[in-house]
Amino acid sequence: MQVTVRQGDSLWVYSQLFQVPLQLLLDSNPNIIPQGLMLGQTVEIPGYVTIGYQIVSGDTIWRISSRYVVPQDMLLLLNPSILVNSLRVGQIIRIPRRVTDVVVNTVRPYDYGDMLEDLTLLEEIYPFIRRRSIGTSVMGKEIPEIRIGNGPKQVHVNASFHGNEWITTPVLIRFLNEYLLALTNNGSIRGLVMNPLYRTTTLSLVPMVNPDGVNLVVNGPPSEEPYRNEVLAINDGSSDFSGWKANIRGVDLNNQYPALWEREAARGPRTPAPRDYAGTGPLTEPESQAIANLTRNSNFNRVLAFHTQGRVIFWGFEGLEPPESEVIVNEFARVSGYQPIEYADSSAGFKDWFIQDWRRPGFTIEVGRGTNPLPLTQLEQIYQESLGILLTSLYM
């Protein structure tokens, strides 16, 4: 929500009037000099939306203020053209409404378009989040990263490395929404006050690493060629893509990292396949390259990759994981009920590479239980189990 600066206004005044933490106002307006607001300048107020109201006969600012439970000064700030003593019938004014509930939609099979729609909505309401593209998929879809917070500890979380594990994306999107909601309302999640965590932790989220694969599983083969014919051929002519983990070229993105890649490639398919094909070499695919470049250009203290299924957490790789990994995974297990597993009979995964090259904690969280893609009926339970892990990643 935008307001226009009046004579004598300051960000502190807006913080008090809208009951929004000053730090969030500063982060929502990075180009504004706090001590130098200029008359007529536009300022973003996070955590609010506006509705239109048409003035009728007999309306006064006091009556509108009372009807919508909005301070008069707030109404005047949002509607600088209003003449208090001569409201015009038919005039449209903006009424501010504080956002107090989750706005994202996670009640249907969730594809790339759903994610973009939700991220755009969240970005409009909460302009202090920082969104950018870290690369594009084979089919040219941008892969967005969201950053939130400004603390020295950097935590990276991603989801949907695999197409038929798309349910992990709405888990991250809903968490993002609840975190933003708590921040702007000075609230808490499970008794944890969020604003101190915002100041100590910078959270990086890539909610959908494999957008082409997700759309393939959720919506069926694309209309574009040559992708349509190629994926049908890889899938033996079948239009059932429920078993598809790979990207649109039939490469398993979580078998793409230079951490014993040769070993993983030797025991998987030798040609493109719905799952497990490691490619012709490490990091051949644009999606895996995007995550690798993001990691190299950041300073992540730990990484979490959300997958399905099994209700387990893998946390080691070849004995290279630091001692703190065990402390963290035990807390993850406590809050989620998931089983920690130190080593898995696999390699070339994202968390493997991170542990190997940075010697910092990396985790693969396998949410839910059953056959992929997991049904939406599991989403609420998966979210509640994942929520404890996500909160722990902020406070530990």
Strand and helix layout:
Elements: E1 2-4, H1 11-18, H2 22-28, E2 42-44, E3 48-54, H3 61-68, H4 72-78, E4 92-98, H5 112-125, E5 130-136, E6 142-148, E7 153-159, H6 168-184, E8 188-189, E9 192-193, H7 195-200, E10 201-206, H8 211-219, H9 227-234, H10 261-267, H11 286-296, E11 302-308, E12 312-314, H12 324-336, E13 339-341, H13 350-358, E14 362-367, H14 379-395
Helix pairs in contact: 5-6, 6-14, 12-14
**Cross-sheet strand order for the largest sheet:** 5-6-10-7-11-14-12-13
* Unreliable stretches: none
What is the name of the CATH topology of the largest domain? Aminopeptidase
Q: Whole-Å distance between the termini?
A: 33 Å
What is the beta-strand fraction?
A: 15-25%
Q: What is the number of helical segments per DSSP (H or I, 4+ residues)? A: 14
Query: Could you give me the name of the CATH homologous superfamily of the largest domain?
Result: Zn peptidases
Task: Let me know the average pLDDT.
Answer: 96
Shape: elongated
- How helix-rich are the residues, as a percent range? 25-40%
At the first level of CATH, the class of the largest domain is Alpha Beta
Family: Belongs to the peptidase M14 family.
Active site: 366
Domain Peptidase M14: 108-394
Keywords: Hydrolase, Metal-binding, Metalloprotease, Protease, Zinc
